[in-house]
């Protein structure tokens, strides 16, 4: 029989090595070492709410001068988890009069919230159109936005903004000022968004040619408004 007391080490929480989207279940592991006697209480919490432990093991099984504990908990990720924390709490007889030992993992290091992409347009004077691509509620911040005109990269971005929302995700807005096509029937503009190394998301807008004077009537404005066309994949 081995006697003696030893405090447990501060719990260390480890999570997935890569990011995962909302709705996916991810596992976290908590480890604490070097404590004696063997009896120890380990609890999991997410934002103050207790989580069930999926699996907890104690080593060694027999008598020893010190022991180690390892526990795994599972979390289903939600879109609002960017600022959430998973906490492993350890209580041991050697900690009487002291607060429990805690280890923490930030879900901001685990979650990936994919963006929603929307392309809109607004005619402006001078036979031009202001085209805007709005990329909403994405995390992490790493994102590349590319404009294409008839499959060719369009370089002249006129405005771009990046804003952080209260829940930690981001919005990106990019605008172009485009001349309506005069010599072709239409031009297809594409907003291509690549987020955190994931496959690109694309939205398309078809700008129709301006109406020639011979086709105009007194009730029709000189510039025909563009029409919107969405497609699930990048052209070509």
Automatic annotation (TrEMBL):
Lineage top rank: taxon: Eukaryota
Report if keyword Transmembrane helix is assigned: no
The record ties this protein, via SUPFAM superfamilies, to: Immunoglobulin (SSF48726)
For the keyword tRNA processing, the answer is no
- Compositionally skewed regions (Basic and acidic residues) per UniProt: 211-223
Annotated stretches, region: Disordered:
1-24, 211-236
Q: Which InterPro entries match?
A: CD80_C2-set, Ig-like_CS_Receptor, Ig-like_dom, Ig-like_dom_sf, Ig-like_fold, Ig_C1-set
Listed Pfam families = C1-set, C2-set_2
| Domain called Ig-like: residue spans | 8-108, 115-202
Keywords per UniProt = Disulfide bond, Glycoprotein
From the Swiss-Prot or TrEMBL record, give the protein name: Signal-regulatory protein beta-1-like
């Amino acid at each position: 029989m081995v006697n003696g007391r030893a405090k447990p080490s501060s719990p260390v929480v480890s999570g997935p090595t890569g990011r995962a989207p909302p709705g996916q279940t991810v596992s976290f592991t908590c480890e604490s070492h070097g404590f004696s006697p063997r009896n120890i209480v380990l609890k999991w919490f997410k934002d103050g709410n207790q989580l069930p432990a999926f699996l907890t093991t104690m080593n060694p099984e027999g008598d020893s001068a010190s022991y180690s504990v390892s526990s795994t908990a599972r979390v289903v990720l939600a879109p609002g988890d960017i600022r959430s924390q998973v906490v492993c709490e350890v209580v041991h007889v050697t900690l009487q009069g002291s607060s429990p030992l805690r280890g923490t993992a930030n879900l901001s290091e685990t979650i990936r919230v994919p963006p929603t992409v929307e392309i809109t347009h607004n005619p402006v004077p001078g036979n031009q159109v202001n085209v805007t691509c709005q990329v909403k509620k994405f995390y992490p911040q790493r994102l590349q936005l590319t404009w294409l005109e008839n499959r060719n990269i369009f370089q002249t971005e006129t405005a771009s903004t990046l804003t952080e929302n209260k829940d930690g995700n981001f919005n990106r807005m990019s605008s172009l000022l485009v001349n309506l096509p005069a010599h072709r029937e239409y031009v297809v503009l594409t907003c291509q968004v690549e987020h955190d190394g994931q496959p690109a998301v694309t939205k398309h807008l078809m700008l129709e040619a301006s109406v020639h004077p011979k086709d105009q009537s007194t009730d029709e404005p000189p510039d025909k408004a563009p029409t919107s066309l969405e497609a699930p994949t990048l052209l070509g």
